[in-house]
Design goal:
3-stranded antiparallel β-sheet; Double Stranded RNA Binding Domain; 382 residues; 3 domains; single chain; alpha+beta; hpI Integrase, Chain A
């Protein structure tokens, strides 16, 4: 037994095997443990709830001798007042980290209930700095800092979407009994301005020149978004079994409204689809977990940079299709049918049932007027 100080702790010799203890002469239960490798840890031992317990305070020199001594005194005081610091430590060890919570949320909730689970997985990937943190240690300040960083890197809209997802994740954690409070409470979303960006004719010419330098998959993918106005996820997850080139239609099983629908194909889109290989069940296959393309940001950024397009997002291609139809005099019901909108603008308007041929005719005229050099099937006349 000795009075533990920095000098005595650093002078302690490692045993040949196992572990050795040097106990403090002033604080009962306080000691330094030395193992054969030479590593040293401060510990406190005592009876808690009628049982002998050993609690590790921290490693030397990460924890100084003075800090360890103060921690041992706090433990003794907690036990004397009826507390159980050993049980609290065990509970902390069992508490999941954020990384474990994120994985459980994706596997046990998002995959089962959301078609957009891959998007959830990607967005939770923006929180990887938290992966090793116990969920109870994440504060509102931590979340606000993350929200600001994402807004600076990816824009306020993406920051809002991540915030909404985190709110859902922590609410689910509360239902699972993993936490009592949410670090998202009280945080406000950034203001979002409605986006009305679409590509003009000159920008489409530049886009076309850039697409000519792409491989067949991305060239076809971006061209089809312009030609038929699908959402990027609808097109990316398209299966060949849902493509009917003879009738010029696509059957979209997974739509935003949750209801399947038929989408018309202009002849130009049919010819683009004929250029793609059928070596997979997916029209746009990839090596991703889903089997089809999911990450489009890199390819789109490359195309835009080469074309010199400023502030052009992938969703702007869908908006460009709709805007060109409207400027050509196509009525709102037909534009809504092309885009797959269930409701027209205005809360009191009834659902519209529009003839598929009318939507196809509008897309035919639009495809003809669009300055695109489309890929052609092998063997087709140039």
């Amino acid at each position: 037994m000795a009075h533990l100080t920095k000098v005595t702790v650093e002078a302690a010799k490692a045993p040949a095997s196992g572990q050795a203890f040097i106990r403090d002469d002033a604080i009962k239960g306080f000691a330094i443990r030395v193992i054969a490798s030479g590593a040293k840890s401060y510990i406190w031992e005592g009876r808690i709830g009628g049982r002998n317990r050993r609690i590790t305070l921290g490693r030397h020199p990460d924890l100084s001798c003075a800090q360890a001594r103060a921690a041992a005194l706090r433990l003794r005081a907690a036990v004397a007042s009826g507390g159980d610091p050993f049980a609290e430590r065990q509970k902390e060890k069992q508490e999941p980290t954020f990384g474990e919570l994120a994985r459980r949320y994706v596997e046990e909730h998002s995959k089962l209930h959301k078609r957009s689970w891959l998007r959830d997985q990607r967005r939770l990937g923006r929180c990887t700095a938290w992966n090793g943190w116990r969920i109870s240690t994440i504060t509102v300040a931590d979340t606000a800092k993350l929200q600001q960083r994402i807004a600076e890197e990816r824009g306020p809209v993406e920051a809002n979407r991540v915030l909404e997802l985190l709110r859902t994740v922590f609410n689910r954690a509360k239902r699972w009994g993993l936490c009592e409070t949410s670090p998202v409470l009280g945080l406000e979303r950034f203001k979002e301005r409605p986006r009305d960006r679409f590509l003009g004719d000159q920008e489409l010419v530049k886009l076309n020149d850039s697409l000519l330098q792409e491989g067949e998959l991305w060239r076809a993918y971006f061209a089809l978004l312009l030609l038929i106005g699908l959402r990027r996820s609808e097109l990316a997850s398209l299966r060949w079994q849902d493509v009917n080139l003879e009738s010029g239609t696509l059957r979209l099983e997974h739509t935003k409204s949750g209801e399947p629908r038929l989408a018309p194909l202009p002849r130009a889109a049919v010819e683009v689809l004929r250029t793609l290989p059928r070596d997979s069940e997916w029209v746009f296959s990839s090596r991703s977990k889903s089997g089809h393309v999911t990450e489009t940001h890199s390819a789109w950024s490359r195309v835009c940079q080469r074309a010199g397009l400023v502030d052009a997002r992938l969703h702007d291609l869908r908006r460009t299709c709709a805007s060109r139809l409207a400027m050509a005099g196509v009525g709102i019901p037909v534009v809504g049918a092309v885009l797959g909108h269930r409701r027209l603008s205005g809360a009191t308007e009834i659902y519209a049932r529009v003839n598929l041929d009318a939507a196809r005719a509008a897309l035919e005229a639009n495809a003809t007027s669009m300055p695109l050099t489309l890929p052609t099937p092998a063997g087709a006349a140039k």
